[in-house]
Amino acid sequence: MYEFLSWRVADVMTRAVQTLSTDAAIRDAEALFDAHDFDALPVVSDEGGLAGIVSKLDVLRAYVFTSESIVPRYDEIRKRPVRTIMTLQPLTIAPDQPLTRALEMLAATRVKSLPVVEQGRLVGIVAREDVIRALRRAAARESPPRA
């Protein structure tokens, strides 16, 4: 199990990350959530920088009834860009950080995944499942699946 202490975020993160542009519509996020069962999707700028993250909870909040919109116009909401509902400054982690740091961050917050950012650019994502899988591998004395 001590092997886990030497592992880095880069050892277990997903590098081929499904992302959305800031102009993508909420319906696009919904479709990706349905197709892949993601909990959140990084939103990137045209330059490839992390602009924010949109979660299933963010999408749900877009449909909340308010005194101004007792009957929400669902088609109009679904056309809105994700930049109008995304979290602007999500928690992030660097690829060279110890995996124990990702474990601490995920355990201490309600987020289910952390965008992995290096020099302002999105390079991956690490999710609860990735850390749990790494813990199982360490307990079995396996090496990390170096990507």
Describe it for me?
The protein has 147 residues and is of the alpha+beta class. The chain has a single domain, classed as Roll (CBS-domain). The chain contains six helices and five strands. The strands form two sheets. Strands 1-2-3 form a three-stranded mixed β-sheet. The chain has a two-stranded antiparallel ribbon with strand order 4-5. It starts with 8 loop residues before the first helix and ends in an 8-residue tail after the last helix.
Give the name of the CATH superfamily.
CBS-domain
Describe the sheet with the most strands: 3 strands, mixed
H/E element sequence: HEHEEHHHEEH
Strand order of the largest sheet: 1-2-3
CATH class: Alpha Beta
Distance between the termini: 20 Å
CATH topology annotation: CBS-domain
By CATH, the architecture is named Roll
Number of strands: 5
Quick rundown:
With 147 residues, the chain is an alpha+beta fold.
Set down the secondary structure blueprint.
Blueprint (H helix, E strand, L loop, with lengths): L8 H4 L7 E2 L4 H11 L3 E5 L5 E6 H7 L11 H6 L19 H10 L4 E6 L2 E7 H12 L8
Tags for this entry?
147 residues, CBS-domain, three-stranded mixed beta sheet, two-stranded antiparallel sheet, 6 helices
